[in-house]
Amino acid sequence: xxxxxxxxxxxxxxxxxxxxxxxxxxxxxxxxxxxxxxxxxxxxxxxxxxxxxxxxxxxxxxxxxxxxxxxxxxxxxxxxxxxxxxxxxxxxxxxxxxxxxxxxxxxxxxxxxxxxxxxxxxxxxxxxxxxxxxxxxxxxxxxxxxxxxxxxxxxxxxxxxxxxxxxxxxxxxxxxxxxxxxxxxxxxxxxxxxxxxxxxxxxxxxxxxxxxxxxxxxxxxxxxxxxxxxxxxxxxxxxxxxxxxxxxxxxxxxxxxxxxxx
Amino acid sequence: xxxxxxxxxxxxxxxxxxxxxxxxxxxxxxxxxxxxxxxxxxxxxxxxxxxxxxxxxxxxxxxxxxxxxxxxxxxxxxxxxxxxxxxxxxxxxxxxxxxxxxxxxxxxxxxxxxxxxxxxxxxxxxxxxxxxxxxxxxxxxxxxxxxxxxxxxxxxxxxxxxxxxxxxxxxxxxxxxxxxxxxxxxxxxxxxxxxxxxxxxxxxxxxxxxxxxxxxxxxxxxxxxxxxxxxxxxxxxxxxxxxxxxxxxxxxxxxxxxxxxxxxxxxxxxxxxxxxxxxxx
Lengths: 262, 281
Hints:
Number of strands of chain B: 4
Number of helices of chain B: 8
Low-confidence stretches of chain A: 1-11
Mean pLDDT of chain A: 91
Largest sheet of chain B: 2 strands, antiparallel
CATH architecture of the largest domain in chain A: Alpha-Beta Complex
Shape of chain B: elongated
CATH superfamily of the largest domain in chain A: Oxidoreductase, molybdopterin-binding domain
Distance between the termini of chain A: 49 Å
CATH class of the largest domain in chain A: Alpha Beta
Strand order of the largest sheet of chain B: 1-4
Number of domains of chain A: 2
Distance between the termini of chain B: 22 Å
Low-confidence stretches of chain B: 1-39, 275-281
Structural class of chain B: mainly alpha
Structural class of chain A: alpha+beta
Oligomer: heterodimer
Mean pLDDT of chain B: 83
């Protein structure tokens, strides 16, 4: 063993060589970070709430999961695994507009779509239901810890986006609830994902109000709160800065992460 | 090479802990540049800079994960087994604490403030730092011989006699011998190996198994555990095991000599009692 070398036993001094090598290493590190940041920006790996003390963790989570999950599917379950009864979480007090539409059997409910689209449109529930309906048996898991499995029936969001002809430069879909304080957004990878549904039915029936009826956005690869209830409006955009405080959704404004794949 | 009685001398040499064994390997012709006169009480290097840095970063991350994890649990202090669970399904067990959401029937007449937002942000950020720190530590352990020299028990330690002696001295609450400041005993080695290679990987696995996006890519990670709620329950139990380790670890540090052990883990240096080369435990 040559662990005892007299040179090293002498007190360490900051040699010129050491100074130069650490200088070069530091410069390379800074340059590397710069390149990484630019690449991440280019490939859409920076979440809108990347600022602040938790920005590092949030960016790592979003970037790594976005790279990993580009083509993955949320787990689907068998019919026998559907939770009975489906669990309706608490909902905020419903406003007058909602109650009026509910009294009319939601016949007047509209979903408007605008922004970076060639043909802005407004859909009634009947029009949405005229698209071939699809279903998925997936899990809703709340950030609190509870969960349930249900069959979700609706139309893939990608079909609606195709109908309105989204611009190729579009990066996000912002979605709004009838509750004016409740809105969120997803990137195009999630918006065009085959399991992202505008759902109007559950377990073979109408979607109950407690579960977000008449229209709820299902994003099964993300935690419950991304699945906004009572959807009335979608905006397609390439920049989230002009929405709310520019953090991508109402969640970061209330202290919650924009991306919720974990 | 025969064992020449070589005295201890100041060694900032080896970054690794526990140098005594190297003594016999020191060339008998000691270079003149090295001070040969050795005081009987010397200070030598105990923990390498990398071990110390990763130890304290891990400590910091663990506390952040623990506090934020408790805040998250408070929002639903019920645990289930299988895929799903909510207040309409029977729990495996409940924690007898109030909740931060009025959805949960806890029996308490009040609801704690909701802290989940920053808790989740902090939890995942600390997890990232912990994982990177852990990878660096593991890499170092393998490459620099830390694992072989300081963590893996020696063949002789694993003999039943040595093993039972160590257990007996622990049970008798015997204060560790001086030599143990320089080399982990066999139970200590096995505990550290268990924490590093079993508990930490398992707590990371059960954590990731709760992520809907992660399991969309690796569904086996949650299916093997029996479902998403099982993963959550297991995550809780592994955390309890880690907390138990922390309590015993700090207790043992206290027992063995809080000041000297803390000094060794902070400055990297520890006092050597005498010039005699010591036997390994």
